[in-house]
Each structure stands twice: as structure tokens, then as C-alpha cells.
Amino acid sequence: MRPGITQKITVRGQGRTEIEPLNCVDPDSFYITWEVNSTWSLQFTAYQDGSLAYSMLDSQASVFFDGQEYIIKQAEPDANSGQNSLDVVATHVYFEVGRIRKYKTYVDPQDNDKQTDVRVNGGTQVDNSNDDSSDDSDSNAQKTSSQSKNGDTTTTTTVTKTDETKDDSDENQISYKIDDVLKYWLDGNNLGFSYQVIGDFPSSRIEQLSDGSGSDMLSKITDHWPNAIIYPDNKNIRVYTQDQFNKDYGNRLDYLYNTTEFKWTFDSTSLTNEVMCIGGKYSIETEVDTDTDSDSDQPAANVTKSAQGVIDDARSYLGVPYVYGGAGGARGGNPRSGMDCSSYISQVYQDFGIHVPAQTVAMEPYFHEVSSPQTGDVGFYGAHGSSYHICLFLDANTIIFEPQPGEVCKEEPASWFYPSWVARNDQMATIVGSGGSAGDSSNQSSSTSSSIEYYYFAPFMYRDEESIKKYGEFPAEPIEDGRFSDKNAMIEYAKTKIQPNPALSVDVTTYTNFKPIAGDMIHIIVRDQQISTNEAVVGFNWYPFSESNPTSVTLNSNTQNILDYQNARNKSLMKAIDSIKQAPSYPDQSTNILTITREEADRIEQYVEQQNKQNQQTNS
Questions:
Q1: Measured between alpha carbons, how far is 51 from 441 in angstroms, rounded to an integer?
Q2: Alpha-carbon dihedral sign for residues 472, 475, 476, 481
Q3: Cα-flanking dihedrals φ and ψ of residue 504, to 5°?
Q4: Is 454 within 8 Å of 307 (Cβ atoms)?
Q5: Quick one: pLDDT at residue 435?
Q6: What is the pLDDT of residue 168?
Q7: How far apart are the first and last CA of the chain?
Q8: Each residue of 464-490: pLDDT tens digit?
Q9: Strand 62-65 relative to strand 39-47: parallel, antiparallel, unpaired?
Q10: Cβ-proximal residues to 364 (8 Å cutoff; 6+ apart), any chain
Q11: What are phi and psi of 61, to 5 degrees?
Q12: What are the beta bridge partners of residue 111?
């Protein structure tokens, strides 16, 4: 062991209580590797010295160093040139949290003490169909109902709004805080784990916590809270926000002063700056139930309830003038004084004891669309929900209708003015198809329904305009997430899912084996590149006892780091341009060195100034 190092390496064997100092470690082999939310391990080679500590180096034994406990996962014996040794890999004790496992509830609580014929939890279904108060509708559905009466006809309209996306992908989603996740897995555990949350985190919707390991717990935290940093103190699981974890401890890395190498990696492979966002959906289902006391809507005395009877009755109005808003059908009055297109259809149907309104859009719920027409079907002109005209089919190839002001009810080939869509009323179809008694009973009823899907907000493209100005458009995979019914909330989520700047990482090799601090906001200086900025330690390799293996650290990247780096590069470019502008404005013919003209230098200078201005705007 190197003189002057006060830290001790100690060992506690699996199932033992005594802790022994380990003095037979090769100092150049001993190092600690840490990477944020990923790796924390200790490795070394120990030589056989006959000590109790050496004999305890085995799987699941504990190694203690610098106040932290590590659990041996690999211990590989090696015999070479008469010397026995062990290569040891130990991971930080907090990874043992994976041994904690939660199981979902399999058995119905009422059968907890039974061993046979045990009911499955949630497997018992109760049928309350005989109970008038029961409601087996979707729990996500919201129903509203209205009723109107027109003479002896009562129309009940039920509108059901259902959050379809929640019903599918958001099933069992519950809003949790990080504390809730930690508490679910760690409260009452028998391995000695505790937890702390340091900083403020928002709630997040997660599938209801049920079964899984402690490793699943850690994954849920990092997946649903991307800015969370897990940095335990032994078995105390600590979860930090980035602003609480990254601290300035006054350290500095100065190239050629206390470092041997700064390796910058500028990577735009994962650059993304725009993403299509698709939020939650809901559906609106409209059901119309009509009950008619047909004392007032008995079939006309002279009609025959058959397909031919419908044709004859419809033709009986040929020549009746078109009058917008005229009489007929549900409007009452003398139909022969003048009808419009919808009151004409309403009148013919009323002649057979079938009540339909005398307005095209209001008629739609009383019909359902069919692919091919038959006698008694109607043809709507215009889209569903916005129809503006209607006709009656005498057969598949012939229509009859009230056309427009100045004309009279007339019959034409269907091809002359074919409707947008064809629809059928089941009561009329019964009369046409079998000569049934659609108008014979004293009470008649019909039911129609329609369903339309809606987005809570229109799908939209979120764009980081500053990034697009600099690099052009780099689209990410679309985000389709039914959790969002609010557009602004989805915008904030989209910001966390794109990478608007190239990734910038820095690997630094130092002269010494100084002890790095996780999250340390180190001030880095590279004078000849005019770089001066602060970056956080997100990984390191530390050789505390080695004279030949210096500490190396990995520093993070953020928007400010990237701007500092780009500004430094631009300053270097401006310096080169200044030197060119002082030189002759023609290429140097005596060398093979490629030079540029002053005009070209001016253009480059304008570009660099533009880039600096954009960086300043982004920074502000």
C-alpha cells in the first residue's frame, strides 16, 4: 500500500461479523468506477498473504472503502509464477435493492387462509342486471340525457362521452410522486434500505404499482423523472434533482496545469428538434330513442303497407310545389299547399305511421347508412351532421323529391342527381320488405345511434426554433400519449423528449490521483482554445493508491457548455480571419499552402458574427 494514504480497505466475509483490514492489494489495480444512474463498482487484485481478510474474499462478501460498502460479485483466483491472487469485482451495496421484490395480489382477500378452491382476486363478477340502479357502463364514460315531446312523440337523446385513450393505453394509470414509488418498495423491507428525496419533483402518471423488483423501482424513477439522479449513501437510497445534486466545490481543471488531456466529443447523431405530438382522444356516442303514441300518427287510410304502397303514396304528391319551410309531415298543415324536401319525406313517412322530423340534420339519427338503396330508403346530400337536401328512393334506380323553389315534386333517375349517402329507417324497411304492421300498433318505438371520435386538441408539431435555425430540421419519432388532454402539458413533455443541441462530452485525464466528487461543477480551462466553462462530473475512474494511473473524469454537456464551446471555436476562427485580412489579398504562389481572399474572409466573418448573435439570443 502506498505510504501517505490513510483510507483503509476492509473486508467482512459472507455470514460473518468481524471486519478485517485488507493489506495485500496491488495499489495500481485498485480503482472505483462511477457513472451517473448506471455504474458504481470497485475492482482490484489481491495477493495471497495468509491473512483472514484474504480468505474472506468470496462472492457476496463486503468490501468497505471511503465510507461505502461494496458487495463482491466476481472473485477469480489466479495462480501465476508461484503467486496466488484474486481478481475482485464488487458493486455498490445499493444494487442489492434488486433483491427486494413485490408481488401482486393473486388471491381474493376473503380466501387468504384457504389452500384449495381459492378464488382468484378480481375474478368474481357480479351480475346486477335485475337491479334497475345498476350501471355496467364504462367508468370513463360521462352520460347526458335530454327529452323532447312533439305531439304524441317522445324523443330521448342520450349523449355518452368516453375517454377512449384512457380506456386503452392509460388503463390502471395512477398519479405518483417519487416518494410513493420508494415507499411502495422500501417500507418494511428486511434488508435495511431507507430512502430520501432531495429537491422538488412533479407527479407522474405510472401504471399502478404491483409486482416487480427493487431494480424495477429504480428504472421507474429514471424513466418517469428524467432529471432524477440516484446517488445513495450505502443503503440509504437518495434521489436528487439535478440542481440539488450538481454543486460547485471550487475545483478547477486547467489544461497543462493539472491535466494532461482534454478530449472533447461533439456528437450530433441523436440531434432532434421537432416532434409530432398526438394527445388523448374521446368519443361521443349519440343514441336517439323515439316512442310514438300512434293515435295521431296512424297510417293514412288509403295507403297499402307494402313496397308498392310506398311508391304509390310518394307519387301521389307529384306536382306539389316546393315551398321552403312549407307544410307537411312533422310540421303539420296541408301538405298539398307546398312542401320542401325534408317536409315531403316526413309527410310520406307519416302516411305510414312513422314519425321523423322535417329537417335534414335532425332526420339523420332516425336512419342508418346502407351501401345500396331499396324502396323507402332516403338519400342525404352533404356530409354526416351537415346534410342540406334529401330525396326518397322509389327503387334502386329511381328517386322522387321536392327539388328547389320554383319547381314541383318530381321523379327522376337516381343517376341524374345521386345523393352523397343512402340511409334506411328500420320501420319503413319492415313495411317494404314484409308488409309488416309498422303503423298498426297503438305505440311505436325506434332507436338509432351514431359515434364520432375527437382529439382533445389537434395533433401538432412542437419545434425548437433556435435549434432549427442553427442545424436545420431533425424530426424525432412522433409522441402519441393518451395521458394528455391539455396541449400545454404535452408541450412541456415534448421538450424533454428532444435533443435540440449536439451532445458534448468531455473526458479529462489529470496528472494526479485526486479524489473526484460526483456532481461536482468543475471549472475547466483550456487557454489555447479560449475555453472557460463549468461542467458537472457524471462519471469517473479513480485510482486512490496508484502513482501511475491518474484520475480520469467524464463531464456532462448542457446548452450553456455547448454555447461556450461554440463561442470559443468562433473566437479562434475570428483570430485566424484577422491574420488573413492583414496579409496580401492574393494566394501565396511560392508555397503549396491554400489561402483565401479577403472577400472570402469577410463572408466567413459575417457568418461567425451571425452565429455568435444566435448563441447570445439562446443564452439570454
A1: 104
A2: positive
A3: -125, 120
A4: no
A5: 52
A6: 44
A7: 52
A8: 999 899 889 999 999 998 878 889 989
A9: unpaired
A10: 380, 384, 385, 387, 423, 450
A11: -75, 160
A12: none
**pTM, two decimal places:** 0.56
The 10s digit of each residue's pLDDT in 571-597 is 544 455 455 455 554 444 444 444 445
CA dist 44 → 10, 38, 53 (Å): 13, 20, 14
* CA angle, residues 356, 357, 363, in degrees to nearest 5: 80
Q: How far is CA 114 from CA 107, 110, 121, 290, in A?
A: 9, 9, 13, 53
Amino acid at site 257: Y
Average pLDDT value for the chain:
81
Between the CA of residue 459 and those of 145, 279, 476, what are the distances in Å? 30, 7, 15
For the four alpha carbons of 431, 433, 435 and 437, in that order, the dihedral sign comes to negative
- How much is the pLDDT for 138? 56
Distance CA 258, CA 253 (A): 6
Instruction: Determine the pLDDT at residue 547.
Output: 86
Exposure string of 446-459, with b = 16+ CB inside 10 Å and e = fewer, is bebeeeeeeebbee
Residues pairing with 475 in the sheet: 274
Estimate the crossing angle of helix 307-315 against helix 341-351, to 10 degrees. 140
| β-strand pairing of 389-395 with 460-463 | unpaired
Sheet holding 479-480, edge to edge: 460-463, 274-278, 479-480
CA-to-CA separations, 303 to 313, 353, 443, in angstroms, rounded? 7, 10, 19
Please say whether the beta carbons of 104 and 190 come within 8 A: no
Residue type, 261: E
- Report the run of H or E that residue 229 belongs to, with start and end: strand 228-230
Q: Which three cell numbers stand for residue 546?
A: 496508484
The dihedrals phi and psi of 266, each to the nearest 5 degrees, come to: -110, 110
Q: Which residue has the cell 501511475?
A: 548
Q: Which residues contact 272 (CB under 8 A, 6 or more apart)?
A: 474, 475, 476, 498, 499, 500
- Going by C-alpha positions, the residue among 257, 265, 349 that lies closest to residue 309 is 349
Q: Is 277 left (phi over 0), alpha (psi -120 to 50) or beta?
A: beta
C-alpha cell at 19: 471486519
Write the pLDDT tens digit of every residue in 279-291.
888 887 777 666 6
Burial of 344 (0-12, 13-18, 19+ CB in 10 A): buried
Pairing status of strand 503-510 against strand 479-480: unpaired
The enclosing H or E element of 615 equals helix 598-619
Q: What proportion of the chain, given as a percentage, has pLDDT over 90?
A: 48
Render pLDDT for 384-406 as a digit per residue (tens, 0 to 9): 999 999 999 999 999 999 999 99
Q: What is the mean pLDDT of residues 55-66?
A: 95
Please tell me what DSSP assigns to residue 442.
S
